[in-house]
Amino acid sequence: MLKKHWPVILLGIALLVGLALPLATGASAPGFYIEVLLGGLMTGVLYSLVAMGFALIFKASGVFNFAQGTMVLFAALAVARMAESMPLWVAILLAMGIMVVLAFLIERIVLRPLVNQEGVALLMATLGVTYFLDGLGQIVWGSDVYEINLGIGKEPVMILQNVFEGGILVNKEDFAAALVATALVAALAVFFQKTPTGRALRAVADDHQAAQSIGIPLNWIWVIVWSVAGFVALVAGVIWGSKLGVQFSLSQVALKALPVVILGGFTSVTGSIVGGLIIGVGEKMSEVFLGPILVKTFDLAGGGIENWFAYVLALLFLLVRPEGLFGEKLIDRV
Amino acid sequence: MAGESNARAARIGEVILALEGVSLAFGGVKALSDISFDVREHEVRAIIGPNGAGKSSMLNVINGLYHPQQGTIRYLGREYHDMDPHEVAVSGIARTFQGLALFRGMTVLDNIMSGRNLKMHTNILLQALRIGPALREEIAHREVVEGIIDFLEIQAYRRTPVGRLPYGLQKRVDLARALATEPRILLLDEPMAGMNLEEKQDMCRFILDVNDQFGTTIVLIEHDMSVVMDISDRVVVLDYGRKIGDGTPDEVRGNRAVIDAYLGVSH
User: Fold this and answer.
1) Is residue B98 part of a domain?
2) B207 to chain A, minimum CA–CA distance in Å?
3) How confident is the model over A236-264, as pLDDT tens digits?
4) What is the pTM of this model?
5) ∠ CA A310-A315-A317 to the nearest 5 degrees?
6) Residue B171 is part of which domain span?
7) Interface of A with B (CB under 8 A)
8) Dihedral, CA atoms, A148, A154, A159, A165, nearest 10 degrees?
């Protein structure tokens, strides 16, 4: 147990200690501490959403989908621009339709001709899809910064003032976002575990050949998986877009999702959820509490931990436990 | 004994699967050369041969995984070309795998239920909501699956993740999953490989029971001759990708070329 799982145990201990220290040492007031924690969790949920898109596609088709980040941007752009001339919910439904059409086209034009090719060929193909979507997004929807207004107040509200000194500042929109994301994760879990189509998806993920031999059509499954990934991208895009504005930097979110899938495990949806939360909370906490200490001790100009925390953690995991927290150990027959 | 085999012989029907001059090569390596044989409805047809004889390639050709460069395959009187494995499955040919190819992440029940997938027709939305037709459909399929579970005597393991079962039971689940598609022809890829004597006897009994009770035509490949001879009606023998014998077990046993292939002979 200890020999096999020490990286996980070590990570767990480090996280718990890291979480406890600011409170234990009295470096932070409880109210402020909870604020930081919530902020971290909310960012984490968004990382999880993007990472889930990666994990879904990787599991079902063995493709590392480089275009996931751009799909987030593309979906957000579609919603933002269409919402200018119609109600928001219509725009979201239409955008979902667009993502399904996109899944069809990707399966037909990109995946089907490349079936049974090397993984790297498929990776390059999704790189192509990335640039294509980038360009298409600009041509059709434009390249300015657009906004998505969900109609929920963006102003922070003070809650629990009588419990903690100074209360806790929370953002209503963040809360709504976290709720939606949690609901989505739960809905997907039900879909995968309880429906025949979900069963077929899991079957394909476990063994392509056996799945085909009992009459599950791979092509159809791929369309569904890419549609689901498109749907997840849409939700992430709308939430993130309403928070930061819809702009091209949105596709960079995918770069943050990469360490999340490495930490959680490429083949695990659960892993991407847990990984996203760990990284979201970890980077926020270390930025706020560890940053000032580092700056003081080493006489630095600034911390910037938030920017590199995820990558350092992913790098460490690649060294000691390449399959991630929940991933399957890859054993290749040579 | 004689009466029983006569009764079985009487059940055997028309040719339902016929291979004509099938050749398959991977690059310069010839896996199968000019193979022809047929399979009659309700019979147990074995394909045997030493390791590397092309048995698995043969099965993969029928299954649609490999497409032969030459030759034709006629199933129910119709020729089929370049069918995908899933189309072959839809047309009524199921298979099991050599070694293990179960869906490791799932329970025994889910593995077998996934075999019902091609019979399910309600759309995804209804499935997700688990209402009306989708729920009735799920229940109907569950009944069929329960029948198969009883038949193969794996009631005790319904909720067990397949990875935790011993090898012999996993092979039984593999058989159950194939049966769940209600195939006309069942292809078995070395169903007895790696089993101990008791497991082999169980598997033989199940194969014969499937054949008897469901009338399923069985095509099985095996390199262990002794097992096959007892349960097959007719046997094809392959060696180095060529057919060297075809007939009843007794005919094949007496065939000089077959004896040479198995015992080895200096050429």
Assistant:
1) no
2) 18
3) 899 888 888 888 888 777 788 889 988 88
4) 0.80
5) 95
6) 105-182
7) 187, 190-191, 194-197, 199-200, 202-203, 205-207, 209-218, 224
8) 130
